[in-house]
Design a protein that fits this description.
By secondary structure, the chain is mainly α. The protein folds into four domains: 65 residues, no CATH class; 114 residues, Arc Repressor Mutant, subunit A (Orthogonal Bundle), CATH 1.10.10; 74 residues, Orthogonal Bundle (Arc Repressor Mutant, subunit A); 111 residues, no CATH class. Helices cover 59% and strands 5% of the residues. It contains 20 helices and five strands. The strands form two sheets. A three-stranded antiparallel β-sheet has the order 3-5-4. A hairpin with a 5-residue loop joins strand 1 and strand 2. The longest helix has 24 residues. It is globular. The protein starts with a helix and ends in a 12-residue tail after the last helix.
Length: 399
């Protein structure tokens, strides 16, 4: 069964990073043979080289797919429905350019594009998506995603089908006008896919973490890339004041991303050099690290309470820190765990902060194995409906 899934993924032209996430992060049940192997006693035990095994099996699947005639049956009904939903969303977004003006409008657009990308990748209308994963896909912060989702839900762009339960993410879907009866007739094309991927990849570039730029700096830069425009034209298109446009242009010029006459430099190497110059190189990767630590600590906390017996995670990590242990954790260690992407009040020696510092030490030793253990511990927890039963979990957000 596992080989069939790999072969189907290869025929679907999935990329290795997508399969890596499916096998080792989302932990698809059909890819269990990648994560574990059967012992002589007939039991399954974790592989020490799961990533290497996945790469080896994927290479075989890609080779086999290249010698196999692709099916003429076409995409599944579920995939066609997901693609139609996304095509309709993108068409509606393009028909309302002023809706995405200003800072919040630009953020709303990225939130929707990230959901659209996940919907296409999952080939289903309803997708599990935590606020942290959503933020990483859109190049935003978790707080921003949580804030903008309120507006998008209220305005009927997205809907939450099932709330988050413990470390399990909430289930979301794109809302189609008229309950899905009103259709735009749009067809999802490879060009749509490429444009969607390119816009999200751009949003995740380190340079937009620079304070003088941000999401509005990115929007000014992308508008200039489509053609030379005056300050007033840029302000009108983006729904911001001319002074803000001038400020962003000055920052872009100082970092070598555009010239005084409006010429734009678009190569990824130029963006990377600008990030180094601005002191934000590696900012997105650090946010990934931080959010993974958040998720790991949340899984650790729930594992201590729900799966204390026979837990590989607890055998590796020990018990969740108590207040006495937290007091013994140096604030500097906690601050280093939160990293440069941390915002808000100064960190303190709380149990959560101590857990963050402890998990960061485990992560540093072997990041891949550590994240596999986090995913395995999450999978071993009770199902979402069981975690939602007690009233104390009602307000818990997804890890």
């Amino acid at each position: 069964m596992g080989w069939s899934i790999l072969l189907a993924c290869a025929h679907a032209r999935m990329q290795y990073r997508d399969l890596h996430e499916a096998a080792l992060t989302d932990r698809w049940p059909g890819l269990e043979f990648v994560r574990t192997h059967r012992t002589n006693a007939g039991e399954r035990t974790p592989r020490l080289d799961a990533t290497a095994e996945l790469a080896r099996q994927w290479a075989k699947a890609v080779t086999a797919a290249s010698y196999t005639q692709s099916s003429t049956a076409g995409p599944s009904p579920a995939r066609r429905a997901a693609e139609t939903t996304v095509a309709d969303l993108l068409t509606r977004m393009d028909s309302q350019p002023h809706r995405w003006s200003g800072k919040t409008g630009a953020q709303d657009r990225l939130v929707l594009l990230a959901l659209a990308a996940r919907t296409v990748a999952a080939a289903t209308a309803e997708v599990h998506l935590s606020e942290r994963d959503w933020a990483l896909a859109a190049g935003l912060t978790r707080d921003t995603v949580a804030d903008r989702l309120k507006a998008l839900v209220q305005q009927g762009w997205v809907a939450r089908v099932q709330r988050a339960a413990g470390p399990w993410a909430a289930v979301w879907q794109i809302v189609r006008p008229g309950g899905g009866e009103r259709r735009s007739g749009a067809v999802f094309t490879p060009e749509m896919q490429s444009k969607l991927d390119a816009e999200l990849e751009c949003a995740r570039e380190d340079i937009w973490h620079a304070r003088p730029l941000g999401v509005l700096g990115m929007r000014v830069w992308t508008q200039l890339a489509s053609g030379r425009l005056s300050v007033r034209e840029l302000a009108a298109r983006l729904g911001i004041c001319p002074a803000t446009v001038r400020s962003k242009l000055r920052a872009l010029r100082s970092l070598g991303l555009c010239t005084a006459d409006g010429r734009v430099y678009r190569s990824r190497s130029r963006l990377a050099r600008a990030a180094v110059a601005a002191g934000v190189d590696g900012a997105h990767a650090d946010r990934v690290r931080l959010y993974r630590l958040h998720s790991a600590v949340f899984v650790w906390w729930f594992t201590t309470r729900h799966q204390p017996q026979r837990s590989d995670a607890l055998a590796e990590w020990g018990e969740f820190p108590d207040p006495a242990e937290a007091e013994q954790t140096h604030p500097t260690d906690i601050a280093l765990a939160y990293g440069a992407t941390s915002t808000g009040p100064p960190v303190s020696a709380t149990t959560w902060g101590a857990a963050m510092a402890a998990q960061d030490l485990h992560r540093e030793a072997d990041p891949d194995s550590w994240w596999e253990l986090v995913a395995a511990a999450r999978a071993a927890l009770p199902a979402p409906d069981m975690l939602l039963a007690p009233h104390q979990w009602a307000r818990t957000t997804a890890a």
